[in-house]
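Q: Hi! First time asking for a complex rather than a single chain. Here are the components, and I think there are two in total. Is that enough to go on?
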Amino acid sequence: MPKPKVAFYWCASCGGCEETVVDLAEDILGVVEKVDIVLWPVAMDFKYKDLEAMPDKSIVATLLNGAIRSTEQEEMAHLLRRKSRYVIAYGACAHLGGIAGLANQFPREQILKFNYEDAPSVVNEQKTRPQLSFAHNGHNPTLPALHHVVRALDQVVDVDYYVPGCPPTPKITSAAVTALLENRLPPKGSVIAPDIALCDECPRKASKPTNVSFTHFKRPHQMLMDPEKCFLAQGVVCMGPSTRSGCEAACTCGGMPCTGCFGPTSRVRDQGLKIMSSLCANVAPKEEADINKVLEGIPDPVGTFYRYGLAKSLVRRKVTLPVK
Amino acid sequence: MEQAVKDTFNQGSARANAAYQMGRRRFTVDPITRLEGHGKIDIYLDEKGDVERAYLQVPELRGFEVFSLGRPAEDMPQITSRICGVCPTAHHMASTKCLDDLYQTPPTAPGRKIRELVYNTFMLEDHALHVFVLGGPDFIVGPEAPPAERNIVGVIGKVGLEAGKKVIATRRRLRDLIAYFGGKVVHPVLGLPGGVSKALDPAELPKFKELAKDGVEFAEWTLQVFKDIVLKNSDYVKLITSDAYTHKTCYMGMVDEQNKVNFYDGKLRVVDCDGKEIYKFTAQEYRDFVAEHVEPWSYMKFTFLKPRGWKGFTEGPDTSIYSVAPLARLNASDGMATPKAQAACDEFYKTLGGKPVHHTLANHWARIVEMVQAAETMEKLLNDPEITSQEVRRVPTNVPKEGIGVVEAPRGTLFHHYRTDERGCITMANLIVATANNAARIAMSVERAAKGLIKGGQVTEGLLNKVEMAFRAYDPCLGCATHSLPGHLPLLVKIYDRHRHLLQELRQG
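A: Yes, that's all I need. Here is the structure of the assembled complex.
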């Protein structure tokens, strides 16, 4: 029997997801033996035309990481969708839009102006900007236009499964690949990770207060944090209660609160709203001025509650941004 | 959620998507957009069919500086690490040092030692990744080998499965150390102004000491593999020292008080193409010495030495172009900070004809010399009794205003510069990343390789790989350079004749 064909591909991503696949370490050799990797740009050389020539649905699964923010990425997503039986959104960017999705708060012109004119190290009296088409000595190098909005993979193509995390852990990656190879797949649309809040696997769980009441919020650098006590009990915002488990509480074990990269559980549509409603319901003061004082401890609600999920959230992007 | 609510939401979402697509379609007619996410080289030939000009272009920009605005500064080490998942620890650490400066709160001594331990461990594992997985296969498997073999699997074929397992296992243990302190290895979380978030449990110390000892042995073994496979092959040595891969530029690198290579902290030293020191400055002075030039044909900016002014893509004694990364660090220093690395460095210069070495491909060797220093430094730090102190952080009390932090990333000098309001929320973030410092020299290397290989309109079969080798040696990360793309560089080369008709198109990755 021929080995099942598997593709890895990346769109707007940082390469961290690819590193995680490499971090399967010795296990990767086992995976390589069991499957035929037909596309993996980071580690192996392949040609796009080979991919285009493959029959539709001949790839068993494509693990695609990164958000979608360019035409080329969109086209590749459609091509891989056509060639694959299963498309798996791998990592927070494909799953939720990721940190790059925070750019959905800012117009393109602001990015270009800062980068090429206002940055303190730029010397550019002519105010030169990269040009989409630039004629020089009869040469005409061209550049693609930049787009405004970052999207999660399922805002572009149909997605069968999601592997969450920024990046996913080797362990859940291995579990997902094994489930795939052994054909033990959950219902379509599932996020392949435990469907329970992070607190469940956090070693600080025992000290999580059942009845929390916030008189202030402290930012992580403003205090020496207790290495064993629940962050919320210390007045530090932690995304744990509204975030899916599966990372083995990596960040809280590293002494810092969860920032929500695994996204919500299946019962929650909007991760940021969920934690906001939970935190706000427990703010102790009842007068507006006093409430505002407490909320000063959260100076950037979008970055705090939608760090990875802005593109996929109900908020999605700044309303004044052009839709293109 | 109720099924009916879900359905309504999904329908709304689908409509929004459809509207979005409609709006978008009008703007994506340009066929060039196919190239986004790729490195792109446009080569123009003259009437004889020789290369007149080659443009290495980076066609994307993500804009981290702008979407950092308004974020609490203490989130920056975690946000900016997402610029690159290959070198997240470099961004994380530069950002954390920037926070120290912003709050005028230096780390406690044990806090600093943990940062240095994590950082040197990262340098060792990241360099090992390049040597065995990313750029090294060009040499270990061979530049003429078919692309399908020039990868980690080919490396294992060449050095043997046991050796391959050793590489993988050692990297895993090194990365476990980073994950111990950082929570996770890709996008760690340990950095806070004034120190780190986690101390070392003394019970874990023996395991890490063992790792450091093995790390030194691993680095020395890597050096031996390089000598056996590359230096004993005269064709490879000829390739390394050939004109096609040589550029006389300035070099920048961070040095300690004895002018020895330091990855984590120190002053920045610049030498000219004769190896003579021309500038030495602190991170806070970077704007007096480093500036960025904009070309209309690439989203990547080109960094140059500000006192000399932008003089174009030129080399020689007056050039304002400088290079960073392993070779540059060795050239810009008076040697390595640890004994075994110093011995390796001496052999490096003795073999290649003295300081400075201008051969781009010598970066591969210099990278391994640095692996030795990183491993020896790990060992030294883990034998320091203070490494298990629990006093790893002090709480900043100053009002923040402006901070600058610099580290040597594996791929070269990395600057983070933030201004904040009095709450510590970002009002300005400027990043100059390793590959941007190398951008001008990389562009020159690509043009040189193209000129050397294309004659009379004849495009050599191995053009793509030879050109790619010219910049793979820098271990370039265009993802870092534009804060946009992933670490690897898929490449498209277009060659135009003198009538500007497309002659040939080559694509890789």
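A: The longest strand of chain A covers residues 59-65. Let me know if you'd like any chain examined more closely.
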